[in-house]
Specification:
- The protein is built from 18 helices and 17 strands.
- By secondary structure, the protein is of the alpha/beta class.
- The chain folds into 3 domains: about 110 residues, Orthogonal Bundle (Fumarate Reductase Iron-sulfur Protein, Chain B, domain 2); about 160 residues, FAD/NAD(P)-binding domain (3-Layer(bba) Sandwich); about 130 residues, FAD/NAD(P)-binding domain (3-Layer(bba) Sandwich).
- The strands form 4 sheets. It has a 6-stranded mixed β-sheet with strand order 3-2-1-4-17-16, sandwiched between helices. A 5-stranded parallel β-sheet has the order 5-13-6-7-8. Strands 9, 10, 11 and 12 form a 4-stranded antiparallel β-sheet that branches.
- α1 crosses α8.
- Bound molecules: iron/sulfur cluster.
Length: about 450
Amino acid sequence: MTMTVQQRKIEPAQDAFRELRGPLTEDKAIVAASRCLECGREGNPAPCTVACPTHIDIPRFIRQIYRGEPLASADTIFTANVLGGSCARVCPVEELCEGSCVLVQEGRRAVEIGRLQRYATDAAFAAEHQSLSDRPAKRSRGHIGIIGAGPAGLACAAELLRLGHQVTIYEARSQIGGLIPTAIAPYKQWTEPLPQEVAALQRLGVQFKLGQAVGEGGLSWQQLEARHEAIFLGVGLGTDVLVSLPGADLKGIWPSLEFIEQLKSGNPPELAGRWVAVIGGGNTAIDVAREAVRLQASQVTVLYRRNEAAMPAYAHEVREAKEEGVRFQWQTMPLRFLGAGQVSGIECRRTRLVPVPGDRPRPEPVEGSEFTARADVVILAIGQRKRTELLEQLPGLHLKRGLLQTDERGYASGKYYAGGDCLTGGATVVEAVAQGKRAAQAIHQDIERGLLS
Ligand code: SF4
């Protein structure tokens, strides 16, 4: 089941911290921009803009780069997406804007939209240009409480501020940015330009209450409801789901988020010469596997209980991981971790896939197919816990499999609106931004109609 592919050498400089989608020089940016056909017209936007969840006017910002106006280009980007600099680094552009570029449909290479977006937003930060300095003349229509300072909460705040409302963001942790500072693999985004994006929001007037939990043990829901006309829940997901298999407490077994957090602390785990096994089939599994390659692991293998077609990870990232030397053992499930003190291997069993109408196939263990996979480091990337314990404190909310349910405007119940991973179970940063914006517009409409007080 291990595949052989044409391997792409990871250069020594291309280490765990070097971002994959690097910057463009001015000359290269203008050449890249010159390839854009400026599709779309009034009322019929370009396919790349349609594919962007925040609907950035992509041909416009590319044209502004081509004309030598990167700061105006950044204004176009940030007006639609307050985290446009971060999204330039972490968006799965192959699945979104670049995947929809008409050049691809003609069998040509897509315009490098992600790197052009990075070029314009980097230029704005370097010039300390303030794209979001437009304060509305009339303020204080409402005072909205936002729970969670992740991408959905930040985007919701930006939109509400622009619409003339006051915003306070409550965040239980001491950091702003949700998963970006801790859970985005550094080869995609280290930290920059998140601090500059947050500073832009602070200039707009958002108030942050960091280290402020809500619900049981924190600020009560009643207190929040008394303070605010509306409350946006952007609470994201929790810590890694852990496996309760024998040997799970051996040394060398990492939850994926702790592994990434350690990496981002600048003090990465020592993996040189190690055999690394990653358990899981999502995008985080691919991220930690590719980081392990960059940390010079001797061998990196992803173990996944279904087949390649059923992997939730993006196909282009799986392909790139293979090119970098990551191996895959599909239809494989762990039974127990082996070792004395330190993990040294995983006893595994093969699975067979049983079709399930309308869903992914169900993996069933194949008795007698057991084998041992060598591993002296194991990274668990099975998923993140849902925030059920927090959301169940609010009786009016409707949860389905631990995920919050809203209407198409992001309205949940009573004064509550929501967006981001607590709805989706873990989607992209740009999707969370779009949901934050959507809920802000719904809150604004409902305040204007006198439905909230
Ligand atoms: Fe430019 Fe491609 Fe978008 Fe057309 S689809 S406007 S060519 S980036």
